[in-house]
Design a protein that fits this description.
Blueprint: H1 23-32, E1 37-41, E2 44-47, H2 48-64, E3 72-76, H3 81-92, E4 96-99, H4 106-116, E5 118-123, H5 128-137, E6 144-147, H6 164-170, E7 186-191, E8 201-205, H7 206-219, E9 227-229, H8 237-240, H9 242-245, E10 252-254, H10 261-271, E11 275-278, H11 280-287, E12 301-305, H12 312-318, E13 323-331, E14 336-340, H13 345-348, H14 353-360, E15 365-366, E16 372-376, E17 391-397, E18 404-405, H15 409-415, E19 421-429, E20 435-440, E21 445-447, E22 450-452, H16 454-461, E23 467-477, E24 481-490, H17 498-506, E25 517-520, H18 533-542
Helix pairs in contact: 1-2, 2-3, 2-6, 4-5, 11-12, 12-14
Length: 543
C-alpha cells in the first residue's frame, strides 16, 4: 500500500475545490481589466466594468421576472451586444441559456419553446413576426417577451413589450451572481439543425464550457488581448464558446450583425480584429470580395474554419491575403470545435502549395480539453487501421461532450453506445493520428456498389476557376442505383457550362466519381453557412 492509501483530511473543501464555470472568466476580468474595452458594436464601446454591470443588471432583471435556477431563458437575436450579454447573464441568475437559430421557421421555433420550456424570450424587432407566429403555435405556457431594439442599425422596437435597455436601467447593479454548486449543472440548451425530424436539445454543463474555452486558447495559440469578431452566430454552439473564452485574456468581442465581406474587412481594418471563426463559405466571401469592399491591414488574422472541409483551392487563395487558417471540427454535441489540424511546421512548411492545402484540410486531432477522438468501426468499436484507406466513424470521449439530449433518453443512449459519442461522420485516419472526413454517413453516394465521397468530388470542382461554391449529392439512377449530381454557384461575371465542368472533373477523378449532371443555382444554406444537402437531394430526386 502506498502512502496515499490513507487520505484522511485530504477531502474537498471550499478552499481547494470550486466548481468550474466560464462565469469565473468575466468575474476575474472586471477585477484585472476593468478599463479595457470588452465589447464593441458600431460606435458603442463597453469596458469590462460596464460589460459586467450590464450583465449583472440583466441577471437581476430576469430574476425579478420570476426566472429561477434551472429555468430556461431563450433568445431570438443576431450577433448584437444583448446576445453576448445574455451568454453571461442567463447563467449568472442560475438559468439555462437557449439561443434559438433566427433562420428557423415558426413551427420549429414553437417546438423549441415548448420543448425547452423557456420562461423569457429576448427578441430582436426584426424577428418579432417570427416570434409572434411561434407563440401562436405553442401548446404550453408562453414566455415573457423582452424586445431588444437596435436603433443604430435602423431596427427599432415596436413598443409592445418591455424594452431591453429600459429593463437594464431599472435593474439592481448589486445583484449577487448565482454560481453553480455543481459543475455538472446545465448551462446551455442548443438545438441541432433538425434536418430530419424534430431538432434535438443538446444540454451543456458548466464544466464542459469552461474546459472548452480554456482548450481553445491553447489550440488557437492565443495570447493576451485578442480582438475577436463574431462571425459564428452566437446561437450556434454558443458561438463555439468563444464569447466565454475572450475575457480570460482580457480581449475584445466585436459584434457583427450582418456578415458581409465589407463588414469583415472594416472590422479588421478599423477595430484591429485578430481572430474569427467561420464556415468555408465565409472564406469564399473574403477571397471573392469586390475591390471596393477590401481594406488594407498589416497583421495576420487567425481564422478557425469548420462546418465542412475547406476546399484546397480556397485555402490556397485566402492565405496570401493575410489570413492564417486553422481547420477545426466538431458538432453541437461537442460544444463546437473539438479537434484541430495542428500544423506540423517541420514536415509541412516546405510542401508544394497544393499539398500544404490538402494537409490543412484534414480534421486533425483532439483539442486539449477532449480526452480521446479517433475513428472506430461503428459496429465493433474497434480502431480502424490508420492507413488513410479504411473508413470508420469519428468517435469522441471526454469532458467536452454534452450531457445528453433533453427529454430524449433513447437518443442519448444511442449516441453514447459503448462509452463513446458517435458523431455520424465517416473518416479515414492516418498513421500520425490525424483523420480526414470522407462524408456524413448520409452523404455517401453508392454508385454501382462503389462508395463515392461527395467531399472528394466537391474538392475537385472547387478548383475550377469559375466555381464559387458547389455541393454534390446522390441522384437516383436506374442503372447504377445512384450517381453524383453537382449543384454549382458561379463567381460573379463568370460562365461555364455543365459539360465543361464534367470534363474538368473526369480528368481528375475515376469515372464512377465524376458528376453525371450539373445544376446551376444558388445553394440553400443554414445560418452558419453549411449547405443544406437534404434540400438538394430533394431536387436531384425530382430531376
Amino acid at each position: 500500500m502506498g502512502w496515499l492509501s490513507d487520505e484522511t483530511g485530504l477531502e474537498k473543501c471550499a478552499a481547494n475545490y470550486v466548481p468550474l464555470t466560464p462565469l469565473s472568466f468575466l468575474k476575474r476580468a472586471v477585477r484585472v481589466f476593468p478599463d479595457r474595452v470588452a465589447l464593441v458594436y458600431g460606435q458603442r464601446r463597453y469596458t469590462y466594468r460596464q460589460y459586467h454591470d450590464r450583465v449583472t443588471r440583466l441577471a437581476s432583471a430576469l430574476a425579478a421576472m420570476g426566472v429561477k435556477p434551472g429555468d430556461v431563458v431563450a433568445t431570438l437575436l443576431p450577433n448584437v451586444p444583448a446576445q453576448a450579454e445574455a451568454t453571461w447573464a442567463v447563467p449568472a441568475c442560475g438559468a439555462v441559456l437557449n439561443t434559438i437559430n433566427i433562420r428557423l421557421d415558426a413551427n420549429t421555433v414553437s417546438y423549441i419553446l415548448d420543448h425547452g420550456g423557456a420562461k423569457v424570450l429576448l427578441v430582436d424587432p426584426q424577428f418579432l413576426p417570427l416570434a409572434a407566429d411561434a407563440l401562436e403555435d405553442m401548446e404550453g405556457e408562453r414566455p415573457l417577451i423582452i424586445e431588444v431594439g437596435d436603433d443604430p442599425e435602423g431596427v427599432h422596437d415596436f413598443g409592445d413589450f418591455p424594452e431591453y435597455e429600459d429593463i437594464l436601467a431599472e435593474a439592481d447593479p448589486d445583484f449577487e451572481w448565482i454560481l453553480p454548486e455543481d459543475e455538472w449543472e446545465s448551462l446551455a440548451l442548443n438545438y441541432t439543425s433538425g434536418t430530419t425530424g424534430r431538432p434535438k436539445g443538446v444540454v451543456y454543463h458548466h464544466r464542459g464550457a469552461y474546459l472548452n474555452a480554456m482548450g481553445q486558447i491553447v489550440s488557437w495559440r492565443l495570447v493576451m488581448h485578442p480582438v475577436y469578431l463574431t462571425i459564428v452566430p452566437l446561437f450556434h454552439c454558443n458561438g463555439w464558446c468563444h464569447t466565454w473564452m475572450v475575457p480570460a485574456l482580457g480581449g475584445t468581442v466585436v459584434c457583427c450583425r450582418d456578415i458581409t465581406p465589407k463588414a469583415i474587412y472594416d472590422a479588421i481594418a478599423d477595430e484591429g480584429v485578430t481572430h474569427f471563426g467561420g464556415a468555408p463559405i465565409v472564406m469564399n466571401m473574403i477571397v471573392n470580395a469586390k475591390d471596393e469592399d477590401r481594406r488594407d491591414f498589416k497583421h495576420t488574422v487567425e481564422v478557425f474554419t469548420a462546418g465542412a472541409p475547406p476546399a484546397a483551392a480556397t485555402l490556397a487563395a485566402i492565405e496570401p491575403l493575410g489570413f492564417n487558417i486553422t481547420h477545426v471540427y466538431g458538432l453541437t454535441e461537442t460544444y463546437g470545435p473539438a479537434t484541430e489540424c495542428t500544423w506540423n511546421a517541420e514536415a509541412w512548411d516546405d510542401l508544394p502549395t497544393e499539398e500544404r492545402a490538402r494537409m490543412k484540410a484534414r480534421q486533425g486531432v483532439a483539442m486539449p480539453f477532449m480526452e480521446e477522438v479517433t475513428v472506430l468501426d461503428p459496429k465493433s468499436l474497434d480502431q480502424v487501421p490508420m492507413d488513410g484507406q479504411h473508413q470508420g466513424e469519428i468517435m469522441f470521449r471526454g469532458n467536452g461532450v454534452m450531457k445528453g439530449y433533453l427529454k430524449n433518453p433513447r437518443a442519448t443512449r444511442e449516441s453514447f453506445q459503448g462509452g463513446w459519442f458517435h458523431s455520424g461522420d465517416l473518416a479515414h485516419q492516418y498513421d500520425d493520428g490525424y483523420f480526414e472526413i470522407a462524408d456524413r454517413a448520409k452523404d455517401i453516394i453508392i454508385s454501382g456498389g462503389e462508395n463515392v465521397s461527395s467531399v472528394e468530388v466537391e474538392g475537385v470542382l472547387m478548383h475550377h476557376p469559375d466555381v464559387l461554391l458547389c455541393a454534390v449529392v446522390a441522384k437516383p439512377d436506374e442503372k447504377w442505383g445512384e450517381v453524383p449530381c453537382a449543384f454549382v454557384e458561379l463567381k460573379d461575371g463568370h460562365s461555364v457550362d455543365g459539360d465543361a465542368l464534367i470534363a474538368f472533373a473526369r480528368e481528375r477523378l475515376a469515372g464512377f466519381k465524376t458528376p453525371k449532371r450539373v445544376v446551376f443555382q444558388d445553394l440553400p444554406k443554414t445560418s452558419t453557412g453549411k449547405i443544406q444537402k437534404f434540400e438538394l437531394r430533394k431536387i436531384a430526386k425530382a430531376l
